[in-house]
Amino acid sequence: MSIKFRINQVSMRTSGGPVVYEFRSALTVLAGSVGVGKSTLFELIKHGLGGEALLADVVETSVTSVTLNITVGDQQFQLTRSTSPREWNRVRVFDINEQQSKPDHFVDKEEPTLNSLLLDALDLPDDMRAAASSGSTNQGARITFNDVFKYMYISQGEINKQIAGSGDGYYQPKRKAVFEVLFDLTSPEILDLRSQMATARGEWEKADHDFGVVKQFLSDSNTQSRFQAEQTQLEVLKQRSHAEAQLESIRELTSPAIDRETQTLRQLLGEAERTLAEAENSRAVLQQQQSDFMRERDLIDQDIQRLVRMKFSAERLAAIEFAVCPRCMQSVKGREAPAHACRLCLQPDPVLSAHGEKESETYEQDQLRDQAKELEAQILSVSSSNDDLLRVIDDRRALIVDLSGRIQERTQARITPQLQAYADATAKRAEAEAMQRELEKTLIQWDRADDLEQQAASFQELLASLKGELNVAETALNTRRSEVFDELDEEFSELVSAIGIPGVKTATIDRKSYLPILNGKSFQKFSPVGGMRTATQVAYWITLMNVSLRRRDTHFPAFLLMDSPRTSLNNSDDLSAALYRRLVTMADAADGRVQVIIGDNELPADYRRDYEQINFDYDHPTVPTVRHPGRDAVTRIGFSEE
After folding, report:
1. pTM given for the model
2. Which domains does the chain have, with CATH numbers?
3. pLDDT reported for residue 641
4. Which of 110, 155, 273, 284 fits 106 for a cystine, CB–CB 3.0-4.6 Å?
C-alpha cells in the first residue's frame, strides 16, 4: 500500500513566543491574501525535513527554530531544526512512539543522517543511485529524501512551470528513478545493476580508448610486430650466449700460470703489500703523535713567555712610587707604611735573594722548562722512528714493483695474444644486451596493449552480463509497468475531462518521461506558463495519488503539500472549483489514508465546508508573534507569494 506520511503539527520558536499549528484533517487549506506567510510556513516545513528551503526575512530575523511532529509509516518523530545557518546541519530527533530522544541527525555528510532516518521510515534504502538507463558512464547520484519530497511538495514557483524538477535536464535520471521507486516499477537491485552498468561502461570505454592509443602509437612509430620482436629476441639471446661463451674460453686461456715460482712470487707480493700497509699506518700514527707533541711544546713555550713578561712588568712597576691610589685616585703620600711593605696594599714586598735581589726564576718556570725539554726529546724520538718507517716504506714499495714486474714477465706471454679477442667478444655481448633492452621495451608496449585489450574485453563481457541481468529483472516488471501506466492513463484522462481543461482532447502519461501528454504533445509544449499548465499539474498529482491509494502496493507517500494553485489558475472559478472538488473527493475516498495541505488565496465558496480551513490576514499572519509590516513592505520568497 502507499506509505502513510502525515504532518501532525508544526511549531516555531519566535522572538515573540511559540507558534503552533495542528493539522488533524485529511484536507487542510491555509487561506489568505498574498504576503500573509503561507509560503513561509510551507518552506519552513521543507526546512524542518532537511531540505534547502527559501526562508523569508521574518524567519531569518524572528524565528529561531522549527519543530515538526510527523508520522511516517508506523513511526512518529519530532524533528527540530534551527534556522541559523551555523546550526542548520544538526537536527534534534525525538521518537514519539518510544518516548525517547534519538542521537542528533545531520543534514549533510555527518552520520547519522536525517536522510537515512526518513528513507528507512518510508521503507526505502538510503544507498540507491539514479544512473541513466542507457549510454551513461556515471554511476548516478544518490537518491535522497529530498528527491522523494519533490513528489510531495509543489511550490508556487514550480506549480505553473515544471513537475518535480522536470525543467532541469541534468536532474531527469534521478526524477524518473524516484518515480519508478515510488510506484515499484523498479527495485534497489535494478538501480544497482544500472549503476554497475554505468561504471562498467565507463571502464570499458577507458580501456578501449587506451588500447587504441597504444596500438596507434605502435603503428605510428613503425614498431615491429610482437612476433617479429620475439623472433629477434631469440636471435639476440643466442648472440649474447655465444659472446659469453667466448669470454669464458678466453678467461680460461689467460688464467695465471700455476707453477711454484709464480705462486711464491705472488705470496711474497701479498706479504710485501701487507707490510707496506702496516708501515704506512704506523707512520700515520707517529706523524699524529709528533704533531701532538709539537703542539704541546708550543703551549708550554707560550706559558714560559707569559711568566717572563709578568716578571719584567713587576720589575718595571716596582720602581714606580705611586703618589695616588690608581683605583680611587686618593693621595697616599702622607700614609705611613711598615718597613718592607707596599704603600698601596700594605702587603710585604716579595722576598729578596741573599744579595738583596728578587729570585731570577720561579718554581713554575722551572717546571715548564723541564716539561719542554721532555717534549723535545719525545719529538726527536718520534722523528727518528718516522725516518726509519719511511725507509721501510720505500723498501717495500721497491719490492712490490720488482715482484709485480717479475710476475708480469711470467704471464704476459699468455695474455697479450687474447686481448683483441676478449675486446671483440665484450663488444658483441654489449651490443646484444643493448638490443635485448630495446626489444624488452617493445614487448612491454605489446604487453600493455594486450592487457588493455583483455581488460576492455573483460569489461565488455561484464557489461553484457549486467545488461542480461537487467533485462531479466526489468522484464519481470513489464506486466506491472503496463498495469500501472494503464491505470495512470485512465485516471489522468478521466480527471482532465472532469476538470474541463480547455482545448484538451486526449490526456496520457508518457511511459518514458513519466510526464503529462496533452493532445499528443508534452505539457510544456501544449501550454505556456500559466493556468492551463497549473491545472494540468494539479490533475497529474491527484492522478498519482489516486492510483497509489487505489492500488495499495506502492511506496508513494500519501501526502501532498501544494502552494497557491488558484493564484496560478488566474482565479479561474470553474477550474478552481473542479480541482477542489476532486481534492475533496480524493480525501473522502482515502478514508484517513491521505493528507493534503494547500495554501491559497480566494477559495470556492461551495466547498469551504468540506475541509479544515486556517485563515490568515495581515493582522493575523502565519507568524502572529511578529507584527506584519503590511502588503507593500513584503519581500517575496523567490517565485512564491511571500
Report:
1. 0.66
2. 5-204+477-623 (3.40.50.300)
3. 41
4. 110
